[in-house]
């Protein structure tokens, strides 16, 4: 790892040091590099790493915005102002491409500044790679491999957080449980490959039908759940009708005569995880007993 240093000049009236301008930035001691590494290694959150790094980068270049683009999305420093000139750097470590770091600034970007930033990047890349690995492992641990939806573990965590919010702020939400009618027949008659196509298609239809504030999960098999971010039961009813309408219109699901049964309920302040789930499950059972391809609320 190359050293990253800050040159300072002594103020004439006192003994402390003041940073020089970016154009005079030169190697001085290894202490600042060690300090930056120490700060970056305190977290595995991508946004925190970018924020910490932006403070050091600002000693070289007045940064209006700093963005990191990677396969996980775009991470941006707090308080970003996306204007001015830009300069982009591809970040790699051990022949692995991590992503692209983009600076926005009003100051002219000289070759000297680029060289200094590249030196600073050698301090960033290893903590950044660790954070990316952590993010990917965490994502795998909370996502259903087939559909990309949240899995049961993610659902349990999300449900507990929403219940805590309900108890503290007295703001309810909806829990919707769904499963596919006639799905076993699809697997038995056409095999699991076609069954997987049906599950992925149903997952897409759920995504098209709910709002951005709602969250969808797959427990496994043909069992799904939605946390509806609204304290009005009529909203859950509208979403249920919208989902069933989308299923009826879909060619793949119609071809295999697949429909969906839905049960839903609203959270209460006295609820715990098991209580609200049991109530929604009873509603789903009622929908099944009422002939399937319908919804029921408790």
TrEMBL record:
<protein>
    <recommendedName>
        <fullName>diguanylate cyclase</fullName>
        <ecNumber>2.7.7.65</ecNumber>
    </recommendedName>
</protein>
<dbReference type="InterPro" id="IPR000160">
    <property type="entry name" value="GGDEF_dom"/>
</dbReference>
<dbReference type="GO" id="GO:0052621">
    <property type="term" value="F:diguanylate cyclase activity"/>
</dbReference>
<dbReference type="InterPro" id="IPR043128">
    <property type="entry name" value="Rev_trsase/Diguanyl_cyclase"/>
</dbReference>
<dbReference type="Pfam" id="PF00990">
    <property type="entry name" value="GGDEF"/>
</dbReference>
<dbReference type="GO" id="GO:0043709">
    <property type="term" value="P:cell adhesion involved in single-species biofilm formation"/>
</dbReference>
<dbReference type="InterPro" id="IPR050469">
    <property type="entry name" value="Diguanylate_Cyclase"/>
</dbReference>
<feature type="domain" description="GGDEF">
    <location>
        <begin position="171"/>
        <end position="298"/>
    </location>
</feature>
<dbReference type="InterPro" id="IPR029787">
    <property type="entry name" value="Nucleotide_cyclase"/>
</dbReference>
<dbReference type="GO" id="GO:0005886">
    <property type="term" value="C:plasma membrane"/>
</dbReference>
<dbReference type="GO" id="GO:1902201">
    <property type="term" value="P:negative regulation of bacterial-type flagellum-dependent cell motility"/>
</dbReference>
């Amino acid at each position: 790892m190359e050293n990253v240093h800050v040159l300072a000049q002594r103020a004439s009236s006192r003994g402390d040091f003041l940073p020089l301008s970016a154009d005079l930035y030169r190697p001085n001691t290894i202490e600042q590099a060690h300090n930056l590494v120490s700060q970056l290694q305190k977290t595995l959150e991508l946004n925190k790493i970018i924020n910490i790094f932006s403070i050091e980068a600002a000693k070289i270049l007045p940064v209006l915005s700093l963005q990191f683009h990677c396969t996980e999305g775009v991470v941006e420093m707090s308080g970003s102002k996306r204007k001015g000139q830009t300069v982009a750097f591809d970040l790699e470590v051990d022949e692995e491409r991590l992503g692209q770091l983009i600076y926005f600034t009003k100051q002219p970007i000289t070759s000297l500044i680029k060289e200094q930033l590249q030196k600073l990047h050698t301090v960033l890349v290893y903590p950044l790679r660790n954070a990316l690995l952590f993010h990917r492992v965490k994502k795998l641990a909370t996502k259903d491999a087939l559909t990309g939806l949240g899995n049961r573990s993610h659902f349990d965590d999300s449900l507990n957080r929403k219940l805590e919010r309900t108890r503290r702020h007295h703001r309810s939400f909806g829990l919707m449980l769904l499963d596919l009618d006639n799905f076993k027949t699809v697997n038995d008659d056409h095999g699991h490959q076609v069954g997987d196509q049906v599950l992925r298609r149903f997952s897409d239809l759920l995504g098209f039908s709910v709002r951005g504030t709602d969250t969808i999960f797959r427990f496994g098999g043909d069992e799904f759940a939605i946390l509806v971010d609204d304290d009005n039961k009529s909203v859950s009813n509208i979403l249920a009708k919208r989902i069933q309408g989308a299923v009826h219109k879909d060619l793949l699901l119609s071809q295999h005569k697949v429909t969906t049964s839905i049960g839903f309920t609203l959270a209460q302040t006295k609820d715990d995880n098991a209580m609200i789930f049991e109530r929604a499950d009873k509603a789903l059972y009622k929908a099944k007993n009422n002939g399937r391809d319908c919804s029921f609320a408790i």
